[in-house]
Amino acid sequence: MAYKINRGGEHVVLPQGLASTADVHKLRSEIQKNTPEFYELEPAEVIDVFLDENDFRYHDHKLHNTKPLVTDDDKVIWKYYGWIRARMAISNKGENNTILVAPLDSNIKEYPYPGEHVIVASYYGKKYYTQKLNTANSVNLNFFKGLSRPWDPWGGEDYNVKEFKGNFGIRQLQAYEGDITFNGRFGQSIRFGSNITELYDKNEDLIPNSGKPQSPNVIIRAGQGEIPTIKYKPVKEDINLDSSSMWMTTDQKVDIDFSNKLTPGLYTLTEKGPDGLGGNQIIINSDRLIFNTKKNAIIMTSPTVIGLSANYEIGLEVPNDTGKVMLGDAMDQTQPALGGKLTMELIDKLLDYLITFANDISSAKGTCVDFTIPISDIYPGSKGLVASLKELKTRMDEPKSKTVFVGHIRG
Questions:
Q1: Which residue has better confidence, 360 or 105?
Q2: Residue 218 phi, psi dihedral angles, 5° rounding
Q3: CA 42 to CA 133: how far, in whole Å?
């Protein structure tokens, strides 16, 4: 805000008769001498931003009239982290008249880019910079090179950065009634909004499930998915197009595309209607999701269903011998699962033993008073058993699942 400093000798001169020319000159001199100094917030062009060691060391080679940021023994003075070197737009006294300016807020920082312009204010004898000037109405870059050099605006500036041309395809976020939005420089955003606004499609038809009075939401996205075609037009979040998104909604339908099209059962479990998923929900969508804990557990619980679906593989892995995968009732998880391959190998051996036994007894005979008598029913029965067991051996792979596999089997 603007402010003034009153001079100690400020007073009002009362007239005593007609004023002469000398009196007028004397009065004007007194007014100029005792008029308060008026200060305003002043714009400044950013020359350097001190964010890494290279910035500090480069500055020391281009000191101009500012203090060193590296000690005599070549150590960076980190107390100036986040500061800028800037040239005041109005009160500067020439090309080399630059100053060091601290960020105004110690917690929330919005670092400008060299060539952008910030507002500088003086408090307690120290200068601070605040937000950037919106010279180009762009969330990506508001570059206005040379604006602080009225004597030579095209003379160039020695910025300690690679050429940054900006991306004017990065747009502001489309906002609605009552929203609070935070736009990042590179296509990320946070919107504290709602579903309170009635929205219409391109045919001017009301979009279903919009215009709910009590419907707070928080939408976070990184990576603008919409490619704008109209200059300066803001973009909307799109949970399917944006690179990574987290939507926390209450009374709003979110039409997310499930990547696994092979399991329509999940659509039923989540009650996805024609307009998307509704109700209180948190939806996260990206190319990869990683949940990791460094010390304790990840717990997933639901009063109805937890669904896992993948087009290629679902892995459950624990260390050999020490880890366990528990399925079923937590109070009765005592039955170990069988390994299909090893189980079939054991059954295969059992079938071989039975076949050998059946072949051995097929020629068995009985005796009657020292006469050997064939047992009529053993031979055909034994041969029939052998044939059945051999046919069963050809089907050993049928019980083996092609989808579910278990490890840690002891052969």
A1: 105
A2: -130, 125
A3: 11
389 and 327 together in one domain: yes
Q: What angle do CA 345, 346, 350 make, to 5 degrees?
A: 115
Same domain (yes/no): 199, 255: yes
What SS3 string covers 3-33?
EEECCCCCCCCCCCCCCCHHHHHHHHHHHHH
How many Å apart are CA 366 and CA 409, to the nearest integer?
46
Question: What's the DSSP call for residue 205?
Answer: P
The domain of 8 spans: 3-38
297 CB burial (10 A radius; 0-12, 13-18, 19+): exposed
Separation between Cα atoms, residue 378 and residue 304, nearest integer Å: 58
pLDDT band at 3 (very low <50, low <70, confident <90, very high): low
Q: How many domains does the chain have?
A: 4
Give Cα 388 distance to the centre of its chain. 62
* CA 331 to chain CA mean position, Å: 39
- CA-closest candidate to residue 355, choices 396, 384, 394, 398: 384
In a shared domain, residues 192 and 259:
yes
pLDDT digit string, tens, across residues 258-285: 887 655 555 555 566 666 788 899 999 9
Q: pTM of the entire structure?
A: 0.76
The answer to whether residues 117 and 45 touch, using CB atoms and an 8 Å cutoff, is: yes
> What CA–CA distance (Å, rounded) separates 364 from 374?
7
How large is the angle between the packed helices 340-361 and 378-393, nearest 10 degrees? 160
User: At 122, which helix (H) or strand (E)?
Assistant: strand 117-123
DSSP letter at 256 equals P
192: pLDDT strictly greater than 90:
yes
Q: Please indicate, yes or no, whether residues 371 and 306 belong to a single structural domain of this protein.
A: no
Backbone Cα Rg of the chain: 40
Structure tokens at 343: 């189980």
Q: Which two tokens stand for residue 122?
A: 């003086």
259 three-state secondary structure: coil
Residue 276 DSSP symbol: B
Tell whether 181 and 244 lie within a shared domain.
yes
